[in-house]
Every structure is written in structure tokens, then in C-alpha cells.
Amino acid sequence: SELIRGFLLSGMPCPSSCPPGLLALMAPGLALMATFSLPSQAGDRRALPVEKPPGVKGRTLILLDVNTKSPVRIISENFLSLQLDPSIIHDGWLDFLSSRRLVTLARGLAPAFLRFAGKRTDFLQFHNVKNPAKSRGGPGPDYYLKNYEDDIVRSDIALDKQKGCKIAQHPDIMLELQREKAAQMHLVLLKEQFSNTYSNLTLTARSLDKLYNFADCSGLHLIFALNALRRNPNNSWNSSNALSLLKYSASKKYNISWELGNEPNNYRTLMGRSVNGSQLGKDYTQLRSLLQLIRTYSRAHLYGPNIGRPRKNVIAFLEGFMKVAGGTVDAVTWQHYYIDGRVAKVTDFLKTRLLDTLSDQIRKIQKVVNTYTPGKKIWLEGVGTTSAGGMNNLSDSYAAGFLWLNTLGLLASQGIDVVVRHSFLDHGHNHLVDQNFNPLPDYWLSLLYKRLIGPKVLAIHVAGLQRKPRPGRVIRDKLRIYAHCTSYHNHNYVRGSITLYIINLHRSRKKIKLAGTLRDKIVHQYLLQPYGKDGLHSKSVQLNGQPLAMVDDGTLPELKPRPLRAGRTLVIPPLTMSFYVVKNVNALACRYR
């Protein structure tokens, strides 16, 4: 028995000198003794990479249990949130946000925040006029679209009022003209992005109405980022234009939260004028005072500073900001993009080293925040798989989902309160919905997450048979497992159920045996795979073998699980993402909200 215990605790395969039958005796012991708690740093809270030792065939690779007594983290109900880039003013898509189909898709991801911000935030000017003077020019997409916009706002014909908001069924011909216009503008926007020189944007009162109408209809809470690059001669923030926007929004009783600027650490490259962290902190303090003067926004939430990747100079910027305004903001925000979209390859999305880059950034941000304002909530805003607008057939394909789902799991397990996905709809290829208003793979992944995952994060315990690594060889985990209480909003499951979500980056299937409190429970499988001949490049997905598509403009499909019999081993196909609801666990951590 001592020999068995030694091998169990070491995790080593049984040597050739083992007595006959020892291997069989070890099987139940593995479940009870070789299970271990993962470290408190959630970046390391992953299943070990495990392989079958030579000569051991048909054995369960991984034994999995979950601590059901108490959650290790509790994140926001709005954890998975969305972003819209101000470029939708430039390319005309803002005028089509009232589309019934878009609203239906956005409603599927509620409750969530809708952040209106991006590279063009600091070139946005508000004009309190219903319609600026328009140069119509000759016949063409823009000419007809301008006339259409005027007609649809003057009349409620084609508008359906639901819950006080306006939803339109836009004619196909107008959508086709808009796509033509957007394609022309796409080249202009890309040129601005690559040259890092941006033209000014005008947001009219009517445009703001349309933006708020979309958020309100969809059940999303709008966060508006104000232009921080309007500066006085002494480099302090010029708030005159922001005050005009605030007063108009207050007159309409719009429920909005606020930010100031976007990636302020990059202002020198944008305008040749830098703003340091302490100055931005003073600007935020000024904005807070401004909000308190307006009754509607006296208690409005304020978020920032939305810095870029936390390199050394950016960390110094954040420290300067936190010294001055750490107590002014309701959450500290930063943003992250994994890959340069201009050079991305499909194999990049399968690299575990890339998936792990976020952990180090989280630790750097948490260290600064906890130094100045311990316990302050931290958000990751503007996250995307690739920068530079993404790459067609990559960042909008099934392959990009590995990064997206791992980002959600990693951030939740490390206590990041909210993650804002860039973008719901825009001119690039990082979006959830394309310009035909069809949901892309990351949309369906996000929808499953919203339907199945609750805000309580649970610790997992894993054990398995692991081959001894060769000297100098780094074994990186290609099987990622996360666990939460099942969403309370999902009435198909009683409280106390648990949802696992699993990423298999191996090119072979993996087997998981549920142990401990999860043993012999009925499991519902939601297996998401690419659909069609394009494989990982596919822009369509299937759930448990059935392709996913909208039923009609106002109806999302039913997400049907595949029931697995109690005690059945979970078989995870290669290069897939999946969710498993373990029913009727009666987990103490999950019984109450």
C-alpha cells in the first residue's frame, strides 16, 4: 500500500517492476488521492497536459472535480459586454442600428454594457443640431442613403415602437446601398488606421438618439467615451463640448455612464502632444465635478483611464493616474489585442504561449491598482483577437474563438469584473456580427456563454497520468478547463447546477471523467464545431451537429443540448470548444445569488 501511495502522490506511471494488478488497484486511488487543488493564481488554474504512458490503453486521461462549497471569484452580471466604434458614424452603419435583426442579436447578449469608444473617440465632436447641412451631390449610394435617413426620421412608417424604442425593417435595397457605401469607406478608414492620422467626426443630436435607442432597445447600458484631446493652452482638458453633450443627454434623461479618452498613453503619436497620467487624473477629477453639477448624472459611473498594453511606460502612466484619480473612477480599465492583424495566421490562434500572454498583463495591472486603491474593480475594455481591424477569414472565423473563450475564462478566474469585446459591428474583422447582419462564430460562442455561465467562478481539481517531460522541454497546456455556477437566468436548470467550459487545442480527442461531487450526474453537452468545408477558417458553426442560424430577424434559434447519461466519460473532440452543464449537483456555492 505504501508503494501505491508513493506512485499516486508522485503522479508518475507505474514502473515495470510493479506487482501484477497494481495498475488496476491504482485507478480508484487516483480519484481520491491524486486530485489536487490548483494554485490561487487563476492564470495557472488549468488542467495539466496529460498523456497515456506506454502500455496503458483505454485509460481515462483526466479526472475532474469542482469545489462546490464556495466560489473563488464573483464577477459582474454584465461580465461579457460589447463595444461599438465611432467609425460607424463615418461609414454610415449608425443609421441602421434600429434594424430588427441587429437589435435581436444584441438582446441575446444582454444584460451587458455597450461601450461607444475606439481610436476615433478623441476626434469626436458633438453638435446639438438635429441634422447638419448636407451636400447631396449626384445620384449614388450616399445620395439615396441621405434621402432615406431623412424620410425614416420624419415618419414612423416602417417603424415599430416596442417598449418605447424604435425598431425598423430596413428595405433590402437600402441595406445593399449601405454595404456599397461602407465598402468605399472601409478603404478610407484603413488608410487612417495604418497612417495613424484620423479625421474629425461629428456626432449630431439625432445620431446620439439613434445610438441610445439601440442600447435601450437591446437591454444594454451605454458607456460613452468623451473626447480627451480637446485641450486648453496649458494642456488641461477643455470640457466645453463635453458639457454640451452632457446637457443634451440629461435633457433626454438618458441613463449613461462615462469615460474620457481612449488609449491616452498614445496621444503623442496621434497629435504630437502628450498627456501624462497625473494630468489625465486631474481631467477625470474635472469630469467628475462636471457630472455632479448635472442632476441626471450626479451619481453616474465613471470608468478609466483605458490605457493600452501595460508596458513599462504605460505602467508609469497608470501609476500617475491612480495617484490623482484612483478614488474618482468606479473601475480601472485597460485594453488588449493579442496579434497584429496584418500578419496573423490560423496557427497563431492555437499557440498556448499566445493564450498565456494575458496572465502577465493582468498581474501588472492588479499590482498597480491594489497599491493605490485596494479592491478597486478592474475591467478589460476593447479586447480583440487581433489589432489593425483584424484579418478576413481569421479573426472572424471559428479559429478566433479559442482566444476569445480562453480570455473569458482567464479573466473571470483572475477576478477581472468586466470584459468589453471589440466590436459588436464595425468595418474590420474583429466583430461579432458581419455587414449582412449575420452572426459570426464568436457571436454564437458569446451567446452560449451568456446563456450558460453565471457570475460565480469555481475552483477545479484535476488529476491524470502524465508522461515525464524530457530535459529542457516545456509542456504547455492545450486543454483548458473552467467552471462556473450555471446562469440563474437559464430556467432549464435548477439552482445548484454547474457549467464547465473546455478548450481542446490538441489534434486528438481527450477524455475527462467527472469525479467527486460531479460523479454519476446527468450532463448536458453543448459542443461547438466549425460547419462546412472551411474547417477552422469557417464563419459558420454547428452545435451538437446542427448548424446555427437565426430563425428570422426577430428570433434566435433554440440552443439544444445533447443529454449524456449519468457517469459517462466526456469525450472532447480535437480543436473544439464545448460547454457541459452538470445537472442537479446541488452545489452550495450555486444555490443562492
From TrEMBL:
PANTHER family: HEPARANASE, INACTIVE HEPARANASE-2
A Pfam entry, by short name: Glyco_hydro_79n
Protein name per UniProt: HPSE2 protein
Ranges in coiled-coil conformation: none
One GO MF term attached to the UniProt entry: hydrolase activity, acting on glycosyl bonds
A single Gene Ontology CC term: extracellular matrix
Any GO BP: extracellular matrix organization
Family: Belongs to the glycosyl hydrolase 79 family.
Annotated source species: Pteruthius melanotis
